[in-house]
Specification:
Layout: E1 10-11, E2 20-28, E3 34-40, E4 49-50
Antiparallel strand pairs: 1-4, 2-3
The chain binds zinc ion.
Zinc ion binds near residues 14, 19, 44 and 48.
Amino acid sequence: MTQPTPARARICRDCDGFSVVAITTGLRNRDGSRETVAATCRACNSTGRVRLVVKREVAA
Ligand SMILES: [Zn+2]
């Protein structure tokens, strides 16, 4: 069944909701697993969501 109203929270356009990702450095740890670094989205401050902005017209 479809949802009649859109969700209130909007997914971040820059990271598409994946606000923190692990990137391999190309190196290996002692146990053989890949060494990773965490990269966070700067656009949404690693929340994965953006606030709804209501546009208002200003009367001149
Ligand atoms: Zn983001």
